[in-house]
Fold these 2 entries.
Entry 1:
Amino acid sequence: MRKARSNNNFIDKTFTILADILLRVFPASQQEKRAFSFYLNGLSAQDEGEYAEALNNYYQALQIEEDLYDRSIILYNIGLIYSKNGDYLKALKYYYFSIFINPRFTSALNNIAVIYHYQGIKAAEKQCFVLSESLLQKATFYWTKVVKLDPNSYIEAWNWLKTTRRIKL
């Protein structure tokens, strides 16, 4: 297991130092600190493209972490890894776990919409128009939630919803 980030980047080193200080002074139980340590190691491995190691750390953190908000973030990061590797069904599963815990997690909602949109476009290219429309309706559902929760962000989602006339303003 990695103790610190191996990048020589100033920001990475600063983050590592701050995280180590936080772990020492953070008013938390040893169990909470251990979960946070696994989470940080997962972030570091993910940042370096070491996805198997990142997943291992995130799964370890999930076994320990009790805070629901923190669990939703860990689940989201697991979803990011599966999405990055093209395993969209597993990514969706973890994004759904994340929003089950934190229904206002706009990043997870957005990523769900992005996957449905991508799959909808792919289905249209294969001339599976009924499937395509079904997937695009799901993308519409999640992007509509996103822009209602965070109207000043996700400009691409706003633009797609407006140009396809899928949202009423």
Entry 2:
Amino acid sequence: MHFKVVNEVEIAPEKAWELIADFSHVQHIHPLVEKVDQLSDNDAGLNAVRRCHLYNGVKVEEQIVEWNEKDRRYKIELVKGNLPVKQIGAELFVEEISPTRSRIIGNMDVDPKYGVLGQLMVRMVMKPKFGRALGDLFSGTEYYLRTGRDVPENWHGPKPVITSS
């Protein structure tokens, strides 16, 4: 299943990219991530790997599998985690709206376990939950930049636009 999450933020595109691309320090802008372990030699860019410790006790490992600095875009895949999915990946990128405003977009692909039941679970539970989490990550860039503080646990920014295809 594929879905897209879009948020617009009052941040210059270069700064939005800098925050979204800071792969091994996502805890500063993500309200579900308590801390991050960098598992690769590089902390960002192609093949960077991180372990995110979520506030709810879940740990997930993610790897950057595509990186395009020029287009402000990268793609990550779940390497390890206790989620009811066969595979999950997301492409994140930043578009310029104006010199001081950005659109941050996440295209997420989820291949659930459990056949039809898994498909239903993705549509009813995972899409809204993951969509909101991505939207809050994107809004977290603005929060962090304005306050200089990490986004609080379970903080919610403006509701993102979530669409399916």
